[in-house]
Amino acid sequence: MVLTWKYVKTTTVEKIRDVESKVGIVLPEDVKQIILKYNNGRPSVDTFDTAMTKGRQFKKLLSYNREDKENIYTALDVLSKENKELFPIGVDPSGNYICFYKNNIVLYLHETGVIESIESSFENFLNALY
Fold first, then answer.
1. Residue 83: predicted pLDDT
2. Which residues on neighbouring strands pair with residue 104, listed in sequence order?
3. Do 87 and 24 contact (CB within 8 A), yes or no?
4. Does the reported pTM lie above 0.70?
5. What are phi and psi of 38, to 5 degrees?
6. pLDDT score for 92
7. Which residues are CB-neighbours of 10 under 8 A, at least 6 positions away?
8. Is the pLDDT of residue 1 over 80?
9. What is the DSSP string of 57-112?
């Protein structure tokens, strides 16, 4: 099945760089390109599995625009209080974050602080959606 995106909003390289400098990381180039193309987007194929649970839903990519409701800035503020090693990429319908964590993609369950492993890269995560 081909992955398409709905509700995409334009963002800029400068906004991505701003977040990278704020957090002190450099995102992989493929991730930056996905953010630039599909910022705030909702994937047409959105179900994924973690090491612990099956049938999770990937609601959307976080937006790099401060004015959007579910944005990277708010997510970073929340996670900086809970686990500074997590870098959020997306969110599920329950407000859990899909994140980079120690060079892997994980699901961070915000109510319990549990981290569930998903994939070894963002590309693998997108390819594993069903």
1. 84
2. 101
3. no
4. yes
5. -130, 25
6. 98
7. 39
8. no
9. E--EEPBSSTTSSSBHHHHHHHHHHH-TT-EEEEE-TTSPEEEEETTEEEEE-TTT
Average pLDDT over residues 83-107: 94
Tokens read off for 130: 């069903």
Classified as helix, coil or strand, 46 is coil
The amino acid at 73: Y
Burial class of 25 by CB neighbour count within 10 A (0 to 12, 13 to 18, 19+): exposed
Q: Hey, what amino acid is at 120? A: S
Length of the chain: 130
Token digits of residue 81: 């209080």
Q: What is the mean pLDDT of residues 91-107?
A: 95
Rounded distance, CA 38 to CA 32, Å?
A: 10
Q: For tokens 């892997």, name the residue.
A: 104
| Rg value, the chain, Cα | 13
Amino acid identity, residue 8? V
